[in-house]
Amino acid sequence: FLQVFLVEKAGRRSLFLSGLMGMLVSAVAMTVGLALLSQFAWMSYVSMVAIFLFVIFFEVGPGPIPWFIVAELFSQGPRPAAIAIAGFCNWTCNFIVGMCFQYIADLCGPYVFAIFAALLLAFFLFAYFKVPETKGKSFEEISAVFRRKKHSAAKSAKAMTELEDLRGSEEA
User: At the top level of its lineage, which domain of life is listed (predicted)?
Assistant: First the structure.
């Protein structure tokens, strides 16, 4: 319920990144709490608080925000297909995690959440460098951001090719 008001105030990207970072810190805290549980009984409280924070941060960012972003990144024509693919990927990953978690927990022991922390770090870095802010922007403005990134990447690649050609001609 709170997310409906937060998303328009804070923006999609910032909420998504803060949610991912909060989940990352919570996953690290769960790992530490579980690893030190046999040495310190109070670590069970650390683990419980970390679990609650993990869920809260998920509900603030990575839970709802991808649905906003997918709907805003595609024009009306391909939007239904994009949302269907996103939903399929979401539920497939949920199914895989649900089915495999116990086996991974048995294999990794108290370090099972380190895997989640590593994945969350990768997701955070990807979102930080690749996902634009879509708050208050039209589809055309968002498309223009992607075109500029693609154009600057192509321009950079062309400049590198020209530089390599110049180096090659100097050596000859």
Answer: Eukaryota
44-53 CB contacts, 8 Å cutoff, 24+ apart: 50/26, 51/26, 53/22, 53/25, 53/26, 53/29
Cβ proximity of 67 and 73 under 8 Å: no
**Does the domain made of 1-136 have the CATH classification 3.40.50.2000?**
no
| pLDDT one-digit tens code per residue, 20-79 | 999 999 999 999 999 999 999 999 999 999 999 999 999 888 888 888 778 877 888 888
Sign of the CA dihedral running 18, 28, 124, 104:
negative
- Residue in the structure block whose two tokens are 């895997």: 115
Two structure tokens written together for 36: 């030190």
